[in-house]
Amino acid sequence: MDFNDTHQEAAFRATCRDWLEENARLKGGAGNDQRYGKVDEQDFLNSARAWQKKKFDAGWAMLHWPKHYGGLEASAIERIIWSQEEAKFNVPHGVYEIGLGMAGPVMMQYASDQQKSRYLPPMAAGEEIWCQLFSEPSAGSDVAGLRSKAVQDGDDWIINGQKVWTSGAHFCDYGIIVVRHDPNVEKHAGMTFFFIDMKSPGIDIKPIKQITGGSSFNEVYFNDVRIPDSQRLGAIGDGWRVAITTLMNERLAVGDANGTDAKEAFEWAQGQDDHGQPLIKNRGVRESIADWYCQASGLKNTKLRTMSALSKGDTPGPEASITKVVSANKLQAIGNFGIDSLDMAGMLKTDDADVQSFHDAWLGSAGLRIAGGTDEILRNIIAERVLGLPQDPRADKGLAFKDIPSGN
Amino acid sequence: MNLDFSDDQKFLQSEARKFLEKEQSLQRSRSVLDTKQQYDKDLWAKVLAMGWTGIRIPELYGGLGLGYLELCVIAEELGRSLAPVPFSSSVYLFTEAIIKFADEQIKSEILPKLISGECVGTLAITEQLFAPTASNIKVSVDNNQIIGTKIAVPDASVATHVLVICKSKTGIDLRLVDLINNNCEVQDQDTIDNSRGHSLIEFNNANSQLLSNAGDGWALLQNILNQAAVLFSFEQIGGAQATLDMANAYAKQRFAFGRAIGSYQAIKHKLADMYIGLTLAKSNTYYAAWALLNDSTELEVAAATARVSATEAFQFCSKENIQTHGGNGFTWEYDCHLFYRRSKLLSLNIGSLAAWKEKLVSGLERSNLNSLD
């Protein structure tokens, strides 16, 4: 056991670090919060674009990609080292993760060489932003229950229906979409996967106002939208299999619920008054902080175990499947703690950055427990894929999609 | 980057697991519980023959001179199989303290005998029905003679030696006492887990030898407990894994309403939560093993983090394993209660969960938040 990089890893880390120091500012100083939703959207997009382009020009944008698409052909461990180092710097994030994390791999696996050459480099360079169109009003956790229709018409497909929870659709150039081409067969067999130009005629995008007051998600309506058959990814009827690949990537892309953590709770408790004493002296608070610290370091050390496997060239175990369910719930608990610690004044919105971060954690965590797989779906995945427990009996098994009860 | 055991260590672990399975460690644990025998003499003899008691003892004294990680993997297997042997008392608590704090004469006399089993050691801390502190210890020493009563001392009935936390003129001392023909009376005590023996020891002017400096006893004790916490955490994650495996197997085989109970989300989510708790605890325990191996300044916080997570994981897994087994889980016949008992015992044996949470947070305060980055 040791936590040192190998010589090769250390050299790579130093290269990452040198470039980052030249091109970005370390976290910790004063400055803008570079998270999406914290500053004016257009300003934020501009700075995210600029940062992505800078990374692309130096090869860091999608460093594991082949060189001819703008990558460095880096190994999995190098990719982690890069992201560990980048995370120490105050750089914009929240715009490209879905496109690069989900559309990127699916295009890499299923698009033609010509399409890859056309779309992958601008995607990595941040010149074209991609979104993901899976969820629908009646297809959330059961995303295979989607009902947006695709009908073949010559060399095109005509799409009608509605998608929902599409992050960034209003500023995206392209999207990946899964739709139902045949409602007469079993539900998983009737889907087909495409990529789509988000500026196509017939697409109508409406922002969803979230409980935070912000609108990073959208409803996307399709009214006789045409997609050329050449933009089909995978065979007709293979949509579910392609989508599953993408969802696996999403779980890796979503990962940790960022935000205020055990450290911030601890520092806050040192400074906050509790009946004339620092709050950190309160035994109940100390126990809670111990619990959050154990969870936070448990996740951190679990990542180290994953890295250990990658470093040795092994496939990581299923440990990473616990990350989101633990971190999103921890975030919600810490947000609650911070607000409660202000007693009656906890209801007030203030300019204080710590108080704001508790409010953000309290509201935002409610969404993080749902996005990219709900707590419940993630527990099902752990139970079925890791522990090998049997699937639930299904009321839709063996039925043609059109015959499945929908509650309507 | 390598937060994992080496191939040799993994091999040692798999051999230990096979050995303990072949020797029916779990069934022996049940038999000790049923008969209140304190420990399994035959299994202990076989463990001694395996050389595990000498893993950390330097070669100079006849040991294997290996590091902590070999001991960690053995601890995980002892925990998984609820081995009814005085290993943890004699090795994690006593042997480690002798290696670190005893003088050369004591070391050369005792260490070889700890390997062979001629000597078995333990540690006596508790005296009353509340947590011991540096200011409430009453067992006292005067002119090397110890007087007073310790309770809940693990494996005292098989031990030949005991380390005693006692009050002296200078403060708290850590003292070595030979239990044989030395005015010590040992009475076995009934506990929530009689598969592991615990006793009361009455010291009536028992001769003792000071370890390290007079008055340093409480600090030495914290050092011993921080180290032992890592090893006990490995026992706890071994036990937690065993109960998760039991619950998993049962959930697949037990049918209700025409289907395996493991196909119900109520059971799936319960087992997923067991897996989550265990995974966090395991990762924290691995990290603490690294800190122990490297005598890191982070050991205090890392050990407390491992201890808290592993205690919670084992207690959670063992109680939910009973729940998954339904009525069968509440019978003496099923093994569920053996793990439930052991999880509670291990949650108390070197201080309560609340005490370790407090150690964790005060450790964070002292580390100036370095451990939080």
TrEMBL record, chain A:
InterPro entries: Acyl-CoA_Oxase/DH_mid-dom, Acyl-CoA_Oxase/DH_mid-dom_sf, AcylCo_DH-like_C, AcylCo_DH/oxidase_C, AcylCoA_DH/ox_N, AcylCoA_DH/ox_N_sf, AcylCoA_DH/oxidase_NM_dom_sf, Mycobact_Acyl-CoA_DH
Acyl-CoA dehydrogenase/oxidase C-terminal domain mapped to chain residues: 237-387
Domain Acyl-CoA oxidase/dehydrogenase middle, chain residue ranges per copy: 131-225
GO cellular component, one term: plasma membrane
The keyword Oxidoreductase appears for this protein: yes
Keywords in alphabetical order: FAD, Flavoprotein, Oxidoreductase
One annotated GO molecular function: oxidoreductase activity, acting on the CH-CH group of donors
Domain Acyl-CoA dehydrogenase/oxidase N-terminal intervals: 8-127
Cofactor entry: FAD
Family designation: Belongs to the acyl-CoA dehydrogenase family.
Protein name, entry field: Acyl-CoA dehydrogenase
